[in-house]
């Protein structure tokens, strides 16, 4: 078989795999865009602000688990 001839099954399976990878990549991009929009709605523009928000949410969750009202 010549080097430039690819068996149909190999070519077909490679295309399907690439299509799946492309779909996964586009899905992740969509999720990240939604995340950026949500962060923007909360006014979070820096990593430090995000870390602070996560810390507050974790503290609130711990208080709720202990049966106490969260801080506001």
Description:
With 72 residues, this protein is mainly α. The chain folds into 2 domains: 7-41; 44-72. The chain contains 2 helices and no strands. It is elongated and about 70 Å long.
List keywords for this structure.
2 domains, mainly alpha, 72 residues
Taken as a percent bin, the fraction of beta residues is under 5%
Radius of gyration: 23 Å
The structure class reads: mainly alpha
Summarize the helix and strand pattern as letters. Answer: HH
What does the largest sheet look like?
none
Helices, by number, come to 2
State the distance separating the first and last CA atoms.
Answer: 72 Å
Number of domains: 2
Strands, count: 0
Unreliable residue stretches = none
Given the C-alpha coordinates, what overall shape results? elongated
The helix fraction, in percent, is over 70%
Question: How confident is the prediction overall: mean pLDDT?
Answer: 83
- Oligomer state equals single chain
Question: Could you outline the blueprint of secondary structure elements for this entry?
Answer:
Elements: H1 8-41, H2 47-65
């Amino acid at each position: 078989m010549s080097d430039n001839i690819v068996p149909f099954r190999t070519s077909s399976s490679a295309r399907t795999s690439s299509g799946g990878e492309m779909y996964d990549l586009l899905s992740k991009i969509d999720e990240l865009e939604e995340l950026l929009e949500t962060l923007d709605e909360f006014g979070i523009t820096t990593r430090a602000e995000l870390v602070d928000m996560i810390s507050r949410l974790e503290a609130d969750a711990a208080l709720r688990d202990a049966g106490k009202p969260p801080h506001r």
